[in-house]
C-alpha cells in the first residue's frame, strides 16, 4: 500500500462528511445557499443555520473527534492494552466531575478555567485508575484496567448527579453539557482546544520512535535506551490533556478513542509516525459521521451522539475482549 494512501482516503472522507454536515439537518440547504452563507454571510434563515449552527458543530466534531482518537492511541500504547480509551477508563468522567465542581461551587464562566479544570480532573482520574489497575494486576490486563475504570467512572458519575441535583440553578445547563455532543457548544473553547491538540500532535511526532519501542515489553524498551516509566507517564499526561480539552468543549463522548486507533491500524502501518495522524483523522471522521447520523435516526428530533457511537463501540469492545481472551487461552 502506498505510504500516504490511507491519509488521503481519510482526508477525502472527512471533506465529504464536512460538506454533508453543512447541507443536512431538519431542513436541507442547497449547495448554492451554503456557499452564499459561507462566502457572503447574511442574516437570512439559511445563512444563520449554516454559519451559527452547522459550521460550529462541524468544527467541534472535527477537533474533538481527532483529539479523542489520538488520546485513545496514546492510552493503548502506554498500557499496551487495546481496550484503553478515555471514556471506558473513567478519564472523561474525571474531567466532567472537575468541571461540574468548578461551575457549581464558583459560578465561574471563564473558559480557560473550565478547560484547565477538565484537564486536571482527567489527569488525576487517569493516575488513580492506572494506580488501582497496577496494584491489582498490571495495567496491561484488560480485566483489571476496565474494572478500575468502570468503578471510578461510576463513582464520579454518582458524584456529578449529587452535585447538580443539589444546585438547581445550573442543573439544566450542566445536564445538557454532560450528555455529550457537538451541537450548540461554546465554539470559543475551540480557540483553546485547537492549539493544545496541535501541540500534542507535534509532541507525538517527536515521540514516535519512543512510542514504537514502548509497544514492546519493558525490558526490551529499556534495553533500547527508553526510560520506560518517564515516557509512559508523559504519554498518559498527553492523553489526559487531550481528553480534558475534549470534555471541556463537547462534554463526555465515549468510544471514539477506542475505535479510531483500531481503524488506523487497518492501514497495516505499525509505526506511530503513521498511526498518530491516522488515529487523529479516523477520530474526526467517526465524530462527523456520528453527528450526521444523529440528525436522522429519530428525525425530526435529534438522537444523542453517544448512542450512535455506542452502536459502533460496544460491539468493538466485545470483539476485542473476546479476541484478548482467546489470545490468552492460546
Structure in words:
The protein has 330 residues and is mostly helical. The protein has one domain: Orthogonal Bundle (ABC transporter involved in vitamin B12 uptake, BtuC). The chain is 77% helix and 0% strand. The protein contains 13 helices and no strands. The chain has helices spanning 5-23, 31-40, 45-79, 91-106, 111-136, 142-166, 168-178, 190-214, 218-223, 228-250, 256-265, 272-294, 305-329. It is globular, with a radius of gyration of 20 Å. The mean pLDDT is 86.
Total beta strands: 0
Overall geometry comes to globular
* Total individual domains: 1
- State the low-pLDDT regions, or none: none
CATH fold description: ABC transporter involved in vitamin B12 uptake, BtuC
* CATH architecture group name: Orthogonal Bundle
- Tell me the distance between the termini: 31 Å
Question: Helix/strand-derived class?
Answer: mainly alpha
- Proportion of helical residues: over 70%
What is this structure, in a nutshell?
This protein has 330 residues and is mainly alpha-helical.
SSE topology sketch:
Blueprint (H helix, E strand, L loop, with lengths): L4 H19 L7 H10 L4 H35 L11 H16 L4 H26 L5 H25 L1 H11 L11 H25 L3 H6 L4 H23 L5 H10 L6 H23 L10 H25 L1
Helix pairs in contact: 1-3, 1-12, 2-3, 3-8, 3-10, 3-11, 3-12, 4-5, 4-6, 4-10, 5-6, 5-10, 8-10, 8-12, 11-12, 12-13
Q: What key attributes describe this structure?
A:
330 residues; mainly alpha; ABC transporter involved in vitamin B12 uptake, BtuC; 13 helices; membrane; cell membrane; transmembrane; ABC_BtuC-like
